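Intended use. Records such as the Alanine/glycine:cation symporter family protein entry shown here are meant for training and evaluating sequence-to-structure methods. They are not intended to support clinical decisions.
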Amino acid sequence: MEEFVGMINDVIWSNGLIILCLGTGLYFSIRTRFLQLRHIKEMCRLLFDGKSTDSGVSSFQALAMSLAGRVGTGNIAGVATAIAFGGPGAMFWMWMVAFLGASTAYVEATLAQIYKEKHLGEFRGGPAFYIERGLGMKWFGILFAIVSVVSAGAFLPGVQANSVAEGIKNAFNVETWISGLGMVVLFGTIVFGGVKRIAKFTEYVVPFMAIGYILLALIIIAVNFDQLAGVISLVFKSAFDMEAGFGAVFGLAIQWGVKRGIYSNEAGQGTAPHIAAAANVSHPAKQGLVQSFSVYIDTLFVCSATGFMILITGMYNVYDPSFAAGGASEFLYHGLNNIAVGPAYTQNAMDTVFPGFGSYFVAIALFFFAFTTVIAYYYIAETNISYLTRKIESPVFYYVLKVIMMLVIMYGAVNQAKLAWAIGDIGVGLMAWFNIVAILLLQKPALKALLDYEKQKKQGKDPVFVPEEIGVTNAHIWNTLNKEREK
C-alpha cells in the first residue's frame, strides 16, 4: 500500500508542480505589483472590516476559519519533516513559497468572492464555482468539486488526526485510539451546529493558540539568542548549497520546503477560497487582501517559530538520502536518538527550556491547530457538496459527509504516520494542480478588482464592487447585495 501511494505521490509532486507553484506566485506578484508588500497596512486594517450576517461571516471570522485550515499539523510536524528530509535550507524555501504565494492567495480568494452564490441561505463559493461561472467550464468545476470532497473529506483529515494522536501519546502516554475517539465526539458536536458554530469556535481558539505558541517560541529563541545569527546563516547557506554538510540534500531542500510550504499555508491549493467566499464584504478585493495576509501569519510567524525552535536547540535529525544506497551514515546531522520525524522534534525543542511542560504544551497546541484544520476541511468538503447538489434541497449528503469524516479521523489517529502523510500529500497535490491551472486561466477579474479597489480608495471611498463597471460578467449576486446595502 505504501509503495503504491508513494508512486502516485512522486507523479503528482514532480518538479512540474514545484515549478508551477513558485512560477505562479512570482507571476502574480509581478502582475499585482507585489501587493503583498504594498498593501500590508491595508491588509491589517481589513482584518476587522465587515460584519457577520445571516448569509455570511465577518472578515475576521473568515480569517480565523482560513487560518484554522492553514495553521495545522503542517506548522509543527510538517516543519520538522521538511528539516529532517531537506535540511535547514528547507525553511528558506517555505518562506519563499509564503512570500510569493501571498499574491496567489489574493487572486484565488478574490475570484471566490466575485463568483460566490447563496445556497440554503448561506454564501458558498470556491474554485468549482469560479471555474464554472468565470471559465464557463462546468465539467472542470464538477471535477474539481469531486477531487475536493475526496481530498478534504477523506485524504487530509487523517494526517491531522494522526499528528494529534501521536503528540498526545508522546506527552501524556494516552493511547491513540482514545485520542481519536475524543476527536470524533468533539468534531460531531461542532459540525452538526453549522457554519456559524464553526466560525465562532475558530474565532476564539485559533488566535489564542497561535499567539501563545509564538510567545513560547520567542522565549526559547531569547534563551539561545547567542546562536540565532548562526542559525539564520545556516538556513540561507543550506538553501543555496553553500553549506557543505547539507550539500547532499540541496535539491530536497527546495522540494520539501515547497511541498511543506504549500501544505501549511495552502496558497494556490484551492482550499482557502471556499472560506473566503463566506465573508460578508462590500468588495471582493477586501477578502483577497485579508487572505493574502493570512499566508504570512501561517508561514512567516507560526512555521518560523517552529523552525527556529528546532534549529536553535539542535533538536532535530537530517537524514542522508544516500544511506539506503550504501552511504556511510544514516544522518547528515544527528541531534536526537530514537525519535520519529514529527511533532516530537518540536516537543524536544521546547523541553530544553521548559522541561516536561514543553511536551504538554506542544501536544495541546497541536490538538487545537490540527483539530481546527479538520473543521475547516469539513467546511471545504461541505461547500463542494453544496456545489454538486445545488438543485437538490436535501441535507442528507451533509450527514453522510459528517459520518465519513468521523470514520476517517478515527482511522487516521491509529494509522501509521508515514502513510497518513503520503495520502494527505496526494490530496494537496491534486487540488493544487487543478486550482493553479484554473486561476491562471481566470486571472483578469481578480486583477481588475484590485485596480478598481485601489482606484476607489484613492477617491476616499469605502470600495463597493459593481462587476459591470469593470467588465466582469456572471457575478450576479453582487447586484442583489448592492441593492440590499442601499436599503
